[in-house]
Every structure is written in C-alpha cells, then in structure tokens.
Amino acid sequence: ANFHQHPPLFLWMQAVVFQWFGATAASARLLPALFALGTLAGVYVWARRIAGSFAAFAAALVLLLSLPYLK
C-alpha cells in the first residue's frame, strides 16, 4: 500500500502508544478502541441534543451493533 494513503496523525499517535506500552497486540488495539468509544460518545451526545435520551441510546446501540463498525 502507498504510504500517502494512510492518515499520518493516526500513525504518529500509534507510534506514541507503542513507545509508551510496547509493540504488543493489546497496545495496537488500544488507539482504535479509544477512537471507537469516542465515536459512540459523540453519537450519543449529538443524538441526545437532537432527539432525547432514549433515541440517543438507541442510536449509539445501533452503531455499536453494526457489523462494519465492529470490524
């Protein structure tokens, strides 16, 4: 794959995670997991402002259970 097709900020952040925690499978999964949790929180907050708490929970749950999101 071409280097220019990858986002440099994510690669730099991943390098920092590897320096802090070592190059292990768990540390490789840490940053994507944190971004996924942040996305779920963002969807919840946005949907709560638009449609209320129940709809926000439902929107976050639908996103969480979506197969492409889980991969």
Describe how the helices and strands are arranged:
Elements: H1 8-21, H2 25-51, H3 53-65, H4 67-70
Describe this protein with a few key phrases.
mainly alpha, 71 residues, 82% helix
Structural features, described:
- With 71 residues, the protein is an all-alpha fold.
- Helix content is 82%, strand content 0%.
- It contains four helices and no strands.
- Helix 1 (8-21) crosses helix 2 and helix 2 (25-51) runs antiparallel to helix 3.
- The chain is elongated.
- The mean pLDDT is 91.
| pLDDT averaged over residues | 91
Strand residue percentage: under 5%
Low-confidence stretches: none
Proportion of helical residues: over 70%
Determine the N-to-C terminus distance: 20 Å
Q: Output the structural class.
A: mainly alpha
Secondary-structure element sequence?
HHHH
The count of β-strands is 0
Largest sheet: none
* Total of DSSP H or I helical runs spanning 4+ residues: 4
Gyration radius over CA: 15 Å
Using the alpha-carbon principal axes, give the shape. Answer: elongated
